[in-house]
Amino acid sequence: QVQLVESGGGLVQAGDSLSLSCGFAGRIDSITHMGWFRQAPGKEREFVATIRWNSGRTFYAESVKGRFTIARDNAKNTVYLQMNTLKPEDTAIYFCAARESSIRVNIFYTLERNYDYWGQGTQVTVSS
Fold first, then answer.
1. I want to staple 4 with a disulfide (CB 3.0 to 4.6 A). Which of 26, 51, 119, 127 is the partner?
2. Do residues 20 and 123 make contact, with C-beta atoms less than 8 angstroms apart?
3. Are β-strands 122-127 and 10-13 bridged in parallel, bridged antiparallel, or unpaired?
4. E strand spans, the chain
5. What percent of the chain has a predicted confidence (pLDDT) above 90?
6. Which residues of the chain have pLDDT under 50?
């Protein structure tokens, strides 16, 4: 089992920045990828960004590319999402997710079903 806890959400204005954190604990040696997803009111959960835990390589949704940065701190077992130039359409509950596997592959995972563990979510609201 892996436990994930997000923090850092809040209310900001358009153009502002916000940083989210996701700390995790448990059977962490099997974690191969960490991801961020978000769910806006009335919409399905969508992929935001992912990072391969060992290499640190990243992949982003087109809607956030160039504005958001995912990063990890291996020593702290924490993944971050730095969000810059926020827009009202970024308003959503943000979830971090972890994928565990005994096999490490050089691909990125962008679907909910690719991830095994989820945090409880943190609200991000961007006012216009």
1. 119
2. no
3. parallel
4. 2-7, 10-13, 18-26, 31-39, 46-52, 58-60, 68-73, 78-83, 92-100, 117-118, 122-127
5. 86
6. none
